[in-house]
Structures are given as structure tokens and as C-alpha cells.
Amino acid sequence: MRSSSLQHLDSLLVGYAVASEINNSAEHFDFWNGGPFSEWLWRRMGMVYPSNLGWAVEIERAAESAGTPAMEMFFFLLDEFRAERDRPQR
Description:
mainly alpha, about 60% helix, about 0% strand
């Protein structure tokens, strides 16, 4: 049985985004390395420089250090990202 991995999820999301672009979908995608989610994550994690390894690896590392399942941490962070993104600007 394959273990859950954010790197697998990242690959799946990127594959979906590429297929959407090929099919001329106007869907917005936040999960490119260097995209809105990873830029938010670097600030959230207090990283001075962006990670070339990508958001999935960095969340897996943080989850391992915290003793938390990586998928659980990802969805917690995703909820936080969406809440901040969707909050009305003053």
C-alpha cells in the first residue's frame, strides 16, 4: 500500500493544471511552485528565501518536525491560506 505523500498530491495537482491549460480552461491554479500558495507558505513559515524544493516538501519537513501527519498539516494550512485570501481587504 502506498503511503500518503504531499509530493504525490503535488504531482496530481500539477497534472490536473496542465491538462486544464491544454483544454483551454480558465480555472485559476494556486499550487505552482512560486505561485500564490507557496509564496504565502514561505511567509507563514518565516522563510527568508523561497524553497526550490516546493511547498509539498517543506510541509512534509515541518510536519515531521511537529510530529503531525503531513496531509493533516497541509489541509490546516490550506484552510488558513483560503481564509486569508478570501478575507475582505480594508
